[in-house]
Specification:
This protein is mostly helical. It has one domain: Arp2/3 complex 21 kDa subunit ARPC3, CATH 1.10.1760. The protein is 65% helix and 6% strand. The chain has six helices and two strands; from the N terminus they run ααααααββ. A two-stranded antiparallel sheet has the order 1-2. Helix 2 packs antiparallel against helix 3. The C terminus is likely disordered.
């Protein structure tokens, strides 16, 4: 790991943790819209975001006060979702992993902590994740994709040489 990688990861972790903490109960519990989950799309573009969102989630869940299930369980789910987001071939696949893994995984322990039905938690967590990642995160992804080179996030993209109709080469970012 180089300095650039660690710096990016630390910035993402800090934004995630501080943002979630400032949201208060709006960002944790059985009914939540954790706006900082918009950052869960970043691993699609940059592998350093896997570490960033994972550490950010860990710190946020310590500060959130729901105990070890949330600290370790939620962090583990975030880590797996970040890896799968990074490995995704499409934007739709990338946003699906954190939405689904959080909806089904986090709900398992929140139903025990809050003594609420599992499927109730699945629905409420899914809605919150869909708002954070689907409604807010997807447009954020489009922005990042459009500005990947400028933002230095093009390390996930491969330059693809294509031929236009006249047989000329045109080097473009292959938008996966």
């Amino acid at each position: 790991m180089n300095t650039k990688y660690l710096t990016r990861a630390a910035i993402i972790a800090a934004i995630y943790a501080i943002g979630t903490y400032l949201l208060g109960s709006f960002g944790s519990g059985p009914i939540q819209v954790r706006i900082t989950e918009v950052l869960a799309v970043l691993p699609f573009f940059d592998a350093s975001a896997i570490l960033g969102v994972t550490v950010g989630c860990f710190i946020a869940n310590i500060l959130g006060g729901l105990g070890p299930w949330d600290v370790f369980g939620g962090t583990f789910i975030t880590f797996i979702a970040a890896i799968l987001t990074n490995k995704s071939k499409s934007k739709l696949g990338a946003i699906s992993w954190p939405i689904l893994l959080n909806a089904f995984g986090v709900s398992a322990y929140l139903s025990v902590i809050f003594k609420l039905p599992y499927w109730y938690n699945v629905v409420t967590i899914f809605i919150g994740q869909f708002i954070s990642i689907g409604v807010l995160g997807y447009p954020f992804m489009l922005y990042l994709e459009k500005n990947a080179q400028f933002l230095g996030l093009d390390n996930r993209k491969e330059y693809d040489v294509k031929l236009d109709s006249a047989g000329e080469t045109d080097s473009k970012i292959d938008a996966k």
